[in-house]
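ugh ok fine here u go
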Amino acid sequence: MTLFSKDKKGIGFRIGIAVLGCCFLTACQGSSPGEAADAGASGLEAAQIPVVVQAVAYQPMEKTVLFGGLLTPSDQVGIMGGGAGSRLERILIEVGDRVTKGQTVAVMDHRDLELNAANLEIQISQAQLNLERNRALEETGAATRVQIEQMEDQIKQLEIQRENLALQQERLVVSAPIGGIVDTIVATEGQLASAQTVIGTIVNIDTLEFKVDVGENYIQGVKQGDVLQVRIPSMSDRIVEARIKSVPPNINPATKAFAVVMEIDNADNELKGGLYAETSLVVERRDNVITVPQYALLEIDQSRIVYVAEDGVARRREVEVGLTLGDVAEIVSGLNEGEQVVVEGQYSLADGAAVLVTARGDAS
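structure:
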């Protein structure tokens, strides 16, 4: 029984080997040489790591700081009443009216001055008549030279009074101190007003000013005459140009900043005073530097590295990083112009790994 069992097991083993051999031969006979080659190529491609690359190039870098503030009219002047105190008879303007410098905008009651002027003219006429009579009498000895001179002095004094009255009458006709647009009217017709009474205000928005407070760390990059781009968020992010008008020589001790004033040409008056605006000041600039996206950088063993694709192979490069701005980093050393830096797929790489350059978004 024992011998028979061993022979039986041996026969079963040999039968199994024969079956496997037949299966192997059948598989080989069913595969063509081309299919076998394709299978090998597919295995090689699967070993390549898909990556996205970016060519290294020289470009400028600018460090900017965002500042915000309100637009203000270049000129804003009050319309003042006239005289020592008279009734405001008429206001000839309304808010929004465009006026020219010297245009009459209000009239004060000047009837008292007109009466005084009329009486003064009578006095002057009478004095001149008396002078002529006394000159005739002087020839006959009935009037002295001293009397004649006194009358002449009297007429001069009356003429000075006439000039003063005329000046007072002019002041009661209120004119626009500047050309522009009427911004406010705060007085009402019929009220008493004097030279210290504000009737309203006129603004000139043909040129707007934009003031920003710049800290001491950034003021060195701000120069008078520089032209900046200013964004107006409330006007669909409209961009306008502004020229730096003034940079103060001293810091404001209250704000610890320099009040830099810019001018914006607004000849079409589309911009309005009080609108919020923003601008970015260039506080540091470097020309012709090599840059890479910051996300292309890896940190390994306290070293900053990138991968460069060379002939289908990833090469590890240790780099020295300089200025960093947002998503961009300056590379001081370690890269050369024209090299292909891996910007996607770098986390799956090792030095010498096979890579397949693909379009952005295809690397995984």
